[in-house]
């Protein structure tokens, strides 16, 4: 039943990654320590335009792990799943192992 | 008697979809659960212009199911029916089954 | 004695249409029901310019029936008649039977 | 002794027309009735520039009767006479008999 | 000892003209009557640029008598003399006998 | 476990340099004295675009020592290390011995 | 130990000139009299860009004596010396003997 969303313009649909509260070995992580506000890119819009009419593609792509700003982002529920919608320029960077 | 509205510039006329409060099998859905602020596009304007004079067509089209922002939208009554008017850039995305 | 006004730039002179408070058959219409904030275009300006100097003609024309925003519009009395002056981009759409 | 002012850029020097408080036949006009905030153009500036550097001439000319906004306008006394200075884009329209 | 100032960009250095409080024949002028906020242009900057990079020369020149806005202007003391610095676009017009 | 961040657009990832509270010879430095808000550039984004669509590269590069503004900067924890993210135009200058 | 700063973009590093509180002949100058908010240019950035991407060089150069605005300017300590950082467009003019 859940619908699929294709964002408009330079909007980016992100599923937030909830960091583990314990390490693999089961040690409880201090509450604030490893809380990285990050998420996975689910879908991106076709891109926007600058004032001179040039097409500006979205800088991140589906599957990227991205660092999110502390504030902003529109909460969206599709079926039982929760997502957040950001503007491309508000995404802080891409995370790499 | 109801009149037909052709929006100006990049305005989009939308009829909001009121989600069923029960599933097909009659189970009452929790109030907040599946409330997706969505609607169907009834009519779109001819598009706008950027500051350099380039014509910018509207990104969504008649019949599209669209995800609407929580706020904004101008309420319009045409005859007995209620619609909402949005600017194209405020529509969050298109919904697909 | 009443003077004629030619609006400047992309201004539009509108005469508001006051909707009948009764149907043709005399049934009193509920106060809020059919109140469509609409009007007839009396005169339009020569159009404006975008920042790049391109001439932008007015989107509506004399005789059009237009949907007006709830707020805005400058009240103008020419002789005994009352008009309202809008900027072209504030007019929501054109109404068609 | 009164000096002559040549406005700069797209400024327009206007002498306000004070509407007669009586009709020709001497009938006292209700205070608010025919108060049209209008004036005669005395002098105009050379015009302004848009951000792309294009020269934009002033839309009204010396001798025009113009409709003025309710607010704005800089009061200027040249000798014993009182004038008002407006920006071209704030003038609402030209009045014609 | 007093230093000479060359304004930057489209700034204009003005020496305010203090209007005589009496006419030539010695008649005391009512305090508010002929107070024209005017001054003489002492020096002008090389001019500014619009956003498209076009050079925009200053519209007034050294020696011009100019009409000044009621507010704004940066007070500057060079030696014992007092001047005011304005941006070119804030000067209302040039005064001519 | 710590992830590597590639900033987006013209963002710059900086590791703040904490100035020694003592001189090499062990003399305690007055608290406010040598506190230079500086840091080392760890990573830079691909650069931004101006409104006309021109690509604007980042002005500083990896390894530069930079002078940071007193306010602004987004605090980021990658693993156990703390970084700050700035926009390129907010970095005040580069420091050289 | 003091480091050298190269400003970014169109920033200008200035060392404020503190006017003598006495004339050469030792006469105490009234506190407010000759206080000219001026300084010497120590270093300038490479210049900025306008929105159309054109490079805009800094208008003042190293060694110039400049008139500074009353407010603004970022205070910077390099070693024991105090400097102020301004944006090029905020410098009011250059001073000449």
Automatic annotation (TrEMBL), chains A, B, C, D, E, F, G:
Superkingdom of origin: Eukaryota
TM segment ranges: none
Assigned keywords, A-Z: Chaperone
Lineage of the organism: Eukaryota, Viridiplantae, Streptophyta, Embryophyta, Tracheophyta
InterPro entries hit by this protein: Chaperonin_GroES
Origin species: Salvia splendens
Protein's UniProt name: Protein groES
Cellular component per GO, a single term: mitochondrion
Assembly and oligomerization: Forms stable complexes with CPN60 in the presence of ATP.
Molecular function as annotated in GO: ATP binding; metal ion binding; protein folding chaperone; protein-folding chaperone binding; unfolded protein binding
Function of the protein: Seems to function only as a co-chaperone, along with cpn60, and in certain cases is essential for the discharge of biologically active proteins from cpn60.
Family, similarity comment: Belongs to the GroES chaperonin family.
